[in-house]
Amino acid sequence: MNRKIFFGVVICLVYVTTIKKSTAQIIRGIASPITLQMGATEVLLKDYVTDVSIIDSISIHPSMKKNYVAKSDKIVILPNPTKVPALSVLRIWSKGKSEAILVQKSRKEIKIIAFDPTGKEYKKVFIAGDFNSWGADKTPLNFNNGKWIGILNLNPGSYAYQMVLDGKWSTDKNNKDSVSNGSGGFNSLLKIGKPFEIFPSIMTDKLVGNTVFIKPVNRMPSDTIIAFLNNQTLESGAVKKDSSGFSIQVNSNAKGINWLRIFSYNRIGASNDLLIPVVDGKIDTGFVRKSKYNMAMYFALVDRFNNGNKNNDKPVKDKDIDIRANYQGGDLAGITQKIKDGYFKDLGINTIWISPIVQNPEIGYVEYPEPKRKYSGYHGYWPISSSKIDNRFGTDAELKELVAEAHKNGIKILLDFVANHVHEEHPLYKNHKNWTTPIDLPDGKKNIRIWEDQRLTTWFDTFLPDLDYSKPEVINAMTDSAVWWIKNYQLDGFRHDATKHVSEDFWRALTLKLKITFPDKEIFQIGETFGSRELIGTYVNSGEQDSQFDFNTYFDAREIFASSNNDFTKLKNSVYETFSYYGCHHLMGNITGNHDIARFISYAGEGMTFNEDDRKVAWSREVQVKNPVGYKRLLQLQAFNLTIPGVPVIYYGDEFGMPGAGDPDNRRMMKFDGLNENEKQTIEATKKLVKLRESSNALLLGDTYFLKAAKGEFAYMRHYFGDTKVIVFNSTDNPKTIDIPLPFPFKFTKVVDGAKLKAINQNGLLRIEIPANGFEIITLK
Question: What is the third-level CATH fold of 109-154+157-192?
Fold first, then answer.
């Protein structure tokens, strides 16, 4: 191919087949990409095909070899690393029909770590960082020729790390690159791979009838295009090259909701992906507001949200339990009341995640670690039943009313499901003690809260036995329980607690059972995992969960937005890394916070600092917003979450700026009245942002392009055909005029909050004045 042409196209396609209802599809749902490993890659076919016996054969790119036994449930792919393209297709055949899965080349690179001890002697040296979940003894280095040597295989990106020298943590004195650790100190910084900006980038240009026009954004145009309608590749004649890019014609009589997915690559690597809805054979850009990409989620901690029925108030009568660790009266009726009052609709929320509601114990328990405080199970995470609703939260009828009222108002309900453990009073444990992992390790140590080294076996406390999912009978019992909740109460999905502490065998069994039991119901599953993006990404695929909370991006955003004049380069790279792991149109949860960490405004409003222990602060003082600038900074975080790809998730109270240190101070009783002026302004601005997102195709499905990332200045663009939004942040304490280079000339239409737009010229430069600690969302055309 002539590399000098403006935009070359090779179509990697076979033919078009009419897409039928889900019961006739080979692959259930939209197939998540397969990411190759540096060596052999094992693909579990049940992640994609519920009945593998229908598979006749599998074909892959000629640069790869495959080990596949007919009718088996897995295939092993062996790529030739020098010949495998950045993107290719694996095709599954059944009865003369095929469906395809995108295959992504491994992006990992080998990095040699050479630590010079500079004359000092050490017995053991380890490296710990983002790449190994900060495991102090996971990655050893070996002493050789005066240096400690280690080899890492890492995806492109930036990784914070420290050296562990005979058990003592230290930055790498041989590396001058460092980054804040968010707690007043620094970590060393390891940079892997090429800058994200040099990879090819494409965008939607215009839509004419059922033809999509695509153009390149940078000077590294793609050579090859792969396009799917659901899981079928388009025929070669559907894609044409022209002087400005290429066009894709959708010719389909496929009924129902379908998705056009467009991928491209060149010799450098893969580009961003594009996502376009097709309804009943016609491209329908407005449909996105009816899809899961329009979710705006709210997390209501049931006991602390609203007391709708005082007759079920029953805190544990125990003087050793502080009121902050006891039941305070919130219940299902309280959530229903707020749905009826229009609170959620007024806020723009269409999905509510409710904390666990199964029966918890009637008495309190002392936690294992010091200082051994006593708690009740008000939070719901100590189940003594898998089906009975806690009598302090409500009844069977009240949950059904809540779900019915939510659905009547266009709101989905996700239930927090606890699969990792049960309480010692749970019948499952009483009757099957062999269904749990041992609490005593071979060395005599208690296997409690050993989060990394005993990730799949550790107990959360002495009274919370960890379930052993190496036993099929345990998987079957707990997946049956989850299915029962969906079926009995018409719930719309789950938030899964402690995902990384549960075997992937369980998640795969649950998702397969949900697909089979509810073939025509879209069930959304989002999980909780603290760890590296690589670890989190192992749970996000067609066979396990739709999504996880993006804690990595949140912690980077918190560090940047919670104080003034930080360098936004780190946050830009963080979002790029999220794209590289989960795709540019992912469904990862963009959180404002949650019930396990101090509230954002506690830092942003200077009520506490990052170098304090948030759990100790929670018991020593009631954190308040000391500096009103915290509300502006909170709105910056909200604006960020609501304008980047993913699912925005508002933790209750964050819509107006409720403060709080760690648990339990971050779980105060919600307040609906008596808001101060700053809180009133914050909630009104939050409503405006949520509703702006819902009304904008660009903010829901748009392509994302970073325009500027510097100290105190941040700007990016979301673009979807004729809808273009530019989001600009000023994190300094003074008004600032910011110059923003645009990839193409645009005309100014309007700003959201009346910032001073000074100029937008034909050379593609936008100049705007942003208030101190402020932001603006600009509409261009």
Answer: Immunoglobulin-like (2.60.40)
